[in-house]
Amino acid sequence: MLARIEVALKPELKDALGEKLARRMREDLSLSVEACRTVRIYLVEANISREDLLAFASGPLCDPVTEIYSVEKPLAPRFGFDWLIQVGFRPGVTDNEGKVAKEALELLLGRSLATDENVYSLTQYLIKGNLTQEDAERIARELLANVLIERFWVVSEKDFNPEKGLIITPPKVTETHEIKVEFFDLSRLSDDELLKLSKERLLALNLREMKTIKEFFTSNKDFLSLRQKYGLDHRITDVELESLAQTWSEHCKHKIFNARITYTDKVSGKTEVIDSLFKTYIRRSTEEIRKAKGERDFCLSVFVDNAGVIKLNDKWNVAMKVETHNSPSALDPYGGALTGIVGVNRDPFGTGKGALLVFNTDVFCFAPPDWDRPLPPRLLHPKRIFEGVREGVEHGGNKSGIPTVNGSIVFDPRYLGKPLVYCGTGGIMPAEVCGEPSWKKGARPGDLVVMVGGRIGKDGIHGATFSSEELHEGSPATAVQIGDPITQKKMFDFLLKARDECLYTSITDNGAGGLSSSVGEMARESGGAELDLEKAPLKYHGLQPWEILVSESQERMTVAVPPEHIDRFLELAQKMDVEATVLGKFTDSGFFHILYQGKTVGLLPLEFLHEGVPQLELEAVWVPPRLEEPVLAEPEDCGGILKELLSSYNICSKEYVVRQYDHEVQGGSVIKPLTGVKDDGPSDAAVLRPELKENDGLVVAHGICPKYSDIDTYWMVANAIDEAIRNAVCVGADIEHMAGLDNFCWCDPIQSEKTPDGHYKLAQLVRANQALYDFTTAYGVPCISGKDSMKNDYLASGLGLAPENNPFGVGVVLPDGSLKISVPPTLLFSVLARIPDVNRAMTLDAKKPGELVYILGLTRDELGGSEYFRLKGFVGKNMPKVKASSAYDRYLRLRDAIYYGLISAAHDCSDGGLAVALAEMAFSGEVGMVVDLTALPYEGEKRPDYILFSESASRIVVTVPRERQKDFEKLFSGTVYALIGETVAEPVLICRDEKGKAVIEENIFELKKAWQAPLNW
Amino acid sequence: MAHKQVKVIVTAGYGTNCERETAHVCREAGAEKVDIVHLSELVYGEKRLDDYHLLCLPGGFLDGDHLGAAKAGAHRFRYAKVKGREERLLDQIINLIEKGGLIIGICNGFQLLVKLGLLPGFNGNYTQRLTSLTYNDSGRFEDRWVKLRINQASPCVFTRGLKEMFLPIRHGEGKFVVKDDEVLKRLKAQNQIVCQYIHPVTGEPTTEYPFNPNGSILGIAGICDETGRIFGLMPHPEAYNHPTNHPRWRREEIKDPLGTVLFKNAINYIRENLL
Fold it and tell me: Are both A146 and A221 inside the same structural domain?
């Protein structure tokens, strides 16, 4: 039977969620909404008695103190409404609330539900207000539901049946296809037909790759005769084709980073051939740094595992990984971001023998949330993306019990086409696990392939390439996945126990490419694998074998369990309520052997699978953009400009987001994201104690400055690396024990009709990598892990736009009248460092009046790409150039100054320059500052606005207690630094020019107000 | 002397996530035996709740809080039976209480206590639901530190000798509500209101945001039962286990007592009364 249970907060209680939504209907959609209340709906499709149904409703579903419930009869009339909007998931979409309700029902009944029994959750929104049907539908579409994954119903009060309510069918997956394996005879296909096949099956393989596969399946005699033994012939199966496409994807093989690139620099006139950016610049840098460090090398596992691993001390290692989840977040911001964070959790967890996760980071790039121009087709409003992503990371991080310790948000209109969602996770593992180094792993022949965690559905097959039009009622929504942090947490609890009982030899996560990727990768450790797809537990019937292989259903890990431990492993899993299934075994056959119903459906040599992809050959040409320095009148009022800068989206307070993230669960927080007298100043970096019994600390920081990409990506990268390191050393990180992670988010850099500027975009990538090599080696900060996302473009064809008339005000119009929006080339550089004693950690807030204010480092006339120029509508040309050797020396001395207790505050100068840094230190500490700009070491045109707002790199403002002045100055003697002022009791920020005139004289509380205003939602 | 051990159980699993730091503060506070026990070990009868003197129900998201904070979790304690027996997990808790044991529920653990009816426990009835914790007035999850006043007239054994505390809250459903005025009156009369959010300027209990972060009635942040041995609170004492946890440790001389003190009091009580 199908029954409906409704639960709502008692009418006399405030419905905070409803009120929050009502506010957004008014503010974001400009609709006259008076009120909104919410009702939770549970559709119970199960063979149970009326008595049990009532017990279910009144027990786990309804809180007798705060809620009311009803069975069958709707609650809506009790509250009154003008419009009722009901939202529920499409078939096959992860319904976490429904799943928990189902488990609760099973506990109540004392039995498991049958396969045709289930519980589904929905939400009703009861809206009061003078709205048209169209308005109500807009609320549903633009605020409450995402049609990619959800269905919605809109009913007016007059059309609502107060007795029966809204009767709907449950979102059950009803599709039943014939299960079959398809065969393709590539030898008979022409080039065009090969490409067509690639396109139709969404394989994303180019012609050369398709031909390489064709060649291998037609000419390799030994291979073909072996295939016959297993009942296959020269035709490739869909299972094999999909597995190859997955393994050879840009995502897994980083084809652009491994391409052979002919790079011409039109400035120097030189042409060179680069055989793999990754090997030439990234890996080589790390190798050289490790060699130079010799015995002091702290790297343990770099670039080979799911995360990079370094040594923290003799007892603990640390693993860290940063990933992006951009396309899914563009389609479904909440689910995409949630999956992004819980997905990256599995990377350090699946590194070495497995790590205990101790922190998350997140960095978002969005278009400005006050976007008021038209939106190109299919795109969501940036505020909706912002809120969805924020909430996704909130639920993913908070519910996993991992503190979100560090992050930032960058705004640029070009992120309208594709938001960037970077999620990072770090974990610790004991130096040794079961008598072996914890960072090592290795499946052995004979070990069993065991899949642990969630079940397999059609989620995320082929990533996010399906469009909404292709979905129909009853077909599982595959486009987007929704993570379930609790299922994952249960799995992690179990696997850590299994790790410590030495029950497995290797572990990896199921993310992109699913089993194909996880088992295919682990097979390299033993030398082969045999996988029986039929044994895989499924969410619902009807999956083709190839779908089981490449599905990206969440919350799954694959482990290698020696046969002698399998009984204990499965017993422990069952006990801890975690699904674990043996799917095959690891071998040393040299093949990835895939079976279904006892038949071989795939037989791929590991070498071909992993090494067979042909290298791309690409061309890059660097012609510097023609840019000029703007002619700006010297402003009268630098204080006013400072306030405007503080109120710009890139600089303003992000407290609204930070507060909604748990940043101190696990009890080890030392420097929180917010600090100062009122706990709301902006920390430069995070410090935490991962092991509560010890004083060893971890420092986590990052740098990101896509704004410089319009001038030169070489210096963009130099500045991002410097910013990350600068932030870390400001809180006391030891630069000699610091590692980096590089995450590139680029626009498509391959020349084509759709990308006429591909040569330039690829040159931007080459230069970025050159800088990565130059500056990581200069600072001795090795990259230990990284990732690239290379297709961050939005393309809308058929718009028939004229090049000179782009109504959207962002992106470029291509010759065929389509609109293309490419993100600015963006590198996120994250750092992970050690601080030997957390009691030494430093913060940015000025501590008390009467202390001395110093600047470390030289300021130059470098305002190209600055926030000041942006405010005035310019990009400029003279961007900050990083001088690494002097900066490195400065960072070492700063470390000593902090450890010796010579300074009382440190803050880096970045967006908005010196003026913003001073303001933040002053208002966070509620201490005034008086500064003399003539004392400042400066090169270039001497204008107060330039001095105050230049964003020259590697500069740090510190405050020094007077009694420490001598020691401090001695430590910094011989470097560029200056005493520029002092802290005062009066709450003012005063900056004087050479004539003694105050070019800034502002009340610090007013400055703070300006800084807090923009995102004070 | 092995038999003189103070034994503490910290529950884990199904979305609980503060078990490590909660166990850490119990050890720091001097407990000889501190076990982190997965609920499955209880269900399989490998460990028993009533074998311990102090039960800590730590923070987290039991079953994802998907049906409302700790609701599915409470349902689990009420219905999950120890394998091969008719005994429920809730029965073991009641037994622990009858043996004179102590319980502290923090955040999700507090939500669990009220949703099981273990609090307020009027007349020793530990299954009656008279109070609850619901969505913050802001409609948001928030992480912020709050000032608390401790009711020195309260029978609560955990807070003995404490006047004020400064602790972090990290929740989306922490607004304390009561079934009716009678319940509130009785809580007040019996001094079961243990801690309240206070305004930093007036020092008085407040409903003003953000000092009262969730809109709790009378600024109630934690309550105990009539015996003072069962205590639930939304703030996280275990997250203030080291001076550097304090958000202003870098700039001020810190006078706020560590959250560890609550556990020291409990352990002292156990030594004096239960060993």
Answer: no
Mind telling me how many Å the CA of A111 is from chain B's nearest CA?
12
Whether residue A997 sits in one domain with residue A852: yes
Chain A hits for B24, Cβ within 8 Å: 667, 692-693
Known binding positions of A for substrate: 346, 481, 552-554, 789
Least confident range of A218-222, A293-297, A671-675, B137-141: A218-222
H or E stretch covering A936: none
Q: Decide if A391 is inside a domain.
A: no
A880 close to A952: Cβ distance less than 8 angstroms = yes
Residues of A designated as active site = 251, 325
Distance of residue A844 Cα from the nearest chain B Cα, in angstroms: 10
Q: For the domain that residue A73 is a member of, what is the CATH number?
A: 3.30.1280.10
Which two three-digit tokens encode residue A262?
A: 């002919």
Interface A-B, measured as beta-carbon pairs within 8 A, has a size of 193
* Contact (CB<8Å) A666/B72: no
Set of chain A residues whose Cβ sits within 8 Å of the Cβ of B248: 675-677, 679
Mutate to test the interface with A, among B81, B242, B252 (most CBs of A within 10 A): B242
- State the best of A398, A675, A684, A959 to mutate against chain B, taking most chain B CBs within 10 Å: A398
Average pLDDT over residues A133-149: 93
Dist CA A657 CA A678 (whole Å): 17
List, by residue number, the catalytic residues of B.
Answer: 107, 236, 238
* Mean residue pLDDT across chain A: 94
Domain total for chain A? 3
What CA–CA distance (Å, rounded) separates A1017 from A643? 19
Q: What pairs with residue A406 in β-bridges?
A: A361
Cα R_g (chain A), whole angstroms: 29
> Check: CATH 3.40.50.880 for B7-273?
yes
User: Per the CB < 8 Å rule, is A660 touching B142?
Assistant: yes
Provide ipTM, 2 decimals: 0.96
CATH number of the domain that A852 lies in? 3.90.650.10
Give the mean pLDDT of A566-589: 96
Range of the domain at A999: 639-653+844-1017
CA distance B230 to chain A (A): 20
State the smallest CA–CA distance between residue B27 and chain A in angstroms: 10
Domain shared by A197 and A146, yes or no: no
Which structure tokens are listed for A154?
A: 């809109």
Compare CB distances from A675 to B238, B242, B247 and report the shortest one's residue.
B247
A742-801 per-position pLDDT tens digit = 999 999 999 998 899 999 999 999 999 999 999 999 999 999 999 999 989 999 888 889
Instruction: Nearest by CB to A63, from B17, B24, B68: name it.
Output: B68
Tell whether A101 and A234 lie within a shared domain: no
Q: Which residues of A are annotated as a binding site for ATP?
A: 321, 742, 786
Query: Smallest Cβ distance to B137: which of A14, A59, A486?
Result: A14
Residues in contact with A430: Cβ distance below 8 Å, sequence separation at least 6, in sequence order:
A315, A316, A317, A438
Q: Is residue A881 part of a domain?
A: yes
Distance CA B130, CA A485 (A): 31
Does some domain include residue A749?
no
Residue whose entry in the numeric block shows the structure tokens 């960037």: A420
Position A178 confidence tier, pLDDT thresholds 50, 70, 90: confident
Q: Which of A235, A252, A269 corresponds to the end of one domain? A: A252
pLDDT at site A464: 37
- Indicate whether A138 and A219 sit together in one domain: no
Distance CA B65, CA B61 (A): 5
CB contact under 8 A, B145 and A670: no
Amino acid in the structure at residue A3: A
Is A826 inside a domain boundary? no
Helix, strand, coil share of chain A (percent; to 5): 35, 25, 40
Listed by start position, the domains of chain B span: 7-273
Tokens 């008695």 sit on residue: A49
Spell out which residues of chain A touch residue B76, defining contact as CB-CB under 8 Å: 104, 107
